Amino acid sequence: MQKSMSAMNRRGFGRLAGSTALAAAFASVGRPTFAAESVRLIWWGNPERDKRTYAVVDKYNADKGADVLPETYAWGDYWQKLATQAAGGALPDVLQMDYRFIFEYARRNQLADLGPFLGNELQLDDFDQGQLDSGKVDDKLYGVSMGANSMSHVYNKTVLDGIGFQLPDSTKWTSDDYVTIGKELKDQLPDGMYFSENMGLQEPMLQTWVRSRGKELYTPEGKLGFEKQDIIDFFNYWRMMQDEGLTAPADIQAQDSGKMEERMHVIGKSLFGFIHSNQLVANQNLMEDEIDFVMIPNAGDKPGQYMKPSMFLSMAESSADKAAAAQLINYFITDDDANDILLIERGVSADASIRERILGALTPTEQKIIRYLDLVATHVGPLPPPPPKNAGEIDRSLRPAWESVSFGQVGPEDAAVQFYDNAAQILERS
Amino acid sequence: MAKVGPAPAGGALPPAAETGLSRFWRLHGTSYLFLLPWLIGFFGLTLGPTLASLYLSFTDYDLLTSPRWAGLKNYEYAFFNDRRLGNALSVTFTYVLWSVPLKLMVALGLAMVLDRSVRGVGFYRATFYLPSLLGASVAIAVLWRQLFGGEGLVNQLIYMVTGLQGPAWLTHPDYALSTLIVLAIWQFGSPMIIFLAGLRQVPQDLYEAASMDGASAWRQFRKITLPLLAPVIFFNLVLQTIEAFKAFTQAYIVSGGLGGPVDATLFYSLYLYEEAFANFRMGYASALAWLLLVIIAIFTAITFATSKYWVYYEDEAR
User: Fold this and answer.
1) What's the CA gap between A178 and B49, in Å, rounded?
2) Nearby residues of A358 by Cβ (< 8 Å), 6 or more positions away
3) Which of A162, A163, A197 has its CA nearest to residue A269?
4) CB of B226 less than 8 A from some CB of A
5) How far apart are CA B44 and CA B261, in angstroms?
6) Which of A35, A63, A421 lies closest to A228 in space, CA to CA?
7) C-beta separation of B171 from A399 below 8 A
8) Which of A73, A195, A314, A430 can bridge A390 by disulfide, Cβ–Cβ 3.0-4.6 Å?
């Protein structure tokens, strides 16, 4: 009965090969989503945040007899997941939202206006007005800020203390001071450790850079708000840092794909790194050395940093039980038990009574965050205009643009001009 | 002719009353019933989405709002304006042209080594097949990322043996793609199994006769093994080429989803995926998917067309 492959005739064989080829070429994956009657909650996170959020959900389910279904993804997968669920009309009832995307989702009628719930399910009387306003789009409330946050330079305190170096007042230092300090410290650092992570590919760094020169990444009309010269200078600066040996060579720096456990300062390859203030706890958990942070050196005379809403809780317009969803949001934002668990992992609460309550329960690392934000609060500029559609693509295009400079394939000026023209084109396509 | 289907309930109908449809069901009903799961899968999960994507490729669709008809805009952009697409194509072609022949050579070589009755040959075959079972998985890609990291095992070995610091295999634009090609070659398992099956069919007396005539091993390989194996090589070539064009997981994981450094590992599928889910251009991504289908079809057609010059079938007249 055995029929050998080589004895098969040409036509039969061709058909077999052809149909297998066709099937292989068409193979695609699909996963249906199912609507559930319970309240679905989705967030992007890290192990630390997931642990705390699951604990809050468990407590809520147990205390209130609710049935909340939690889902979590890493940042990169999260937005793909959310977009496909939105396309299928199956967004989870309560979702974590980012400042970058809230306008996009709100203006496309994916998010519910939370206004009608204020004073009823949502009790936000103790909430900071500025943080509340940051969740408004076209004067409607589409998200409640889960905490305040800002960019920062994180540094290895253990190493720096070991050298016995005293950092200057970080509310006043400049990008030139940063270079001077780097050159002074360079030879005293442990083997394999460079002074700084190379931040030429960090979009928030570019943003602080242009803001400290009195400009913005994007205008309120959704055009580029800075000049070619700004990014030329930015690339030149970080190329110079690399050439001076103050940052790691390109191929070492490129090992950091943005995941927390790959960051240069986390793996001990740099003294300084860039993070958002709420990431300190998670970063510290990955390291043995103690870390702390300071403000970002300004490249001009204006404050480059600003207080960010770290993330929002929003409600899907498609939610079947909006009241239940609003109650869950309220629980996360204002409940004592919930915030005793969450503390400030997502940023410092904008609810004054919560802030006061949790202060004593904070670890030394978390107290650093409160102290840092107190310091930053008095030295920041205004919240920038909302990023336009396709801003995410421009953010992602900064990495290859910078890498072409750091690997020496393109000069800083040419790469900067290419990036700028490309960004303008991306905005035009939106 | 014996009855094929089951007898209809209530006994056989008189032939005159039988309509075409009921006759069809009597003859083929059972077969279609058994085929049903596959049919549902094919129409619901393959053909449906495929046609939907064809429609979407002519629209502007950002996943959040309804698709808007855009005519040929997406295709025009792909052909005339998309610089990154050119880059993605060149990465993918490089990958296909290197990884497929090398992988097939390794697979054939090992299949010939394993086509012997030594002790424990089953164990060796299983062991050599293992990488391709695991090969396309996320876990292996993660492992690969660590092995070939700047301070990974590979560089430690290089340092131990030569005392030299190895390159950053995955994060230097000069090496990243080659490393992924090596990863692809390592997944030689399934073509190897098919080669093994093919080798089993080569009559041993041909070799005996050849060696009596004093033909060297190389000559035997060229004059006996290769020609008789041609249909199998052809089959593997077609399948592996298609697989290679669709390569995604390795590049996605190994480059952290970025296709970096400097887009050096921006495979076509990776770029397509990024356009669809990161840049919210599902319409354009659908157009890219159809272009990929056409590219694969052209390559497959070329392979088929050349096959008549080098693929030999036993039942053919000489």
Assistant:
1) 54
2) A339, A340, A343, A344, A349
3) A197
4) no
5) 38
6) A421
7) no
8) A430
Tokens found for residue A274: 């860039």
Answer whether A158's CB lies under 8 Å from A181's CB.
no
Q: Do A5 and B201 touch (CB under 8 A)?
A: yes
State the DSSP H helix or E strand holding residue A318, giving kind and residue range, or none if neither: none
pLDDT digits (tens, 9 = 90+) for A159-216: 999 999 999 999 999 999 999 999 999 999 999 999 999 999 999 999 999 999 999 9
| Short-list A316, A345, A310, CA closest to A329 | A316
Q: What Rg value do the Cα atoms of chain B yield, rounded?
A: 26
What is the pLDDT, as a whole number, of residue A430? 66
Look at residue A1 and give its three-state secondary structure.
coil
Contact call for residues B282 and B276 (beta carbons, < 8 A) = yes
* B chain contacts of residue A393, beta-carbon cutoff 8 Å: 278-279
Answer whether B50 sits within 8 Å of A79, measured CB to CB.
no
- pLDDT (average), residues B130-140: 71
Residue type, A426: I
- Asked if the peptide bond before residue A412 counts as cis, ω within 30 degrees of 0, the response is no
Residue pLDDT, tens place only, B87-110? 999 999 999 999 999 999 999 998
Higher pLDDT, B254 or B287: B287
Amino acid letter, residue B101: P
Q: ipTM of this predicted complex?
A: 0.79
Query: Dihedrals φ, ψ of A157, to 5°?
Result: -70, -35
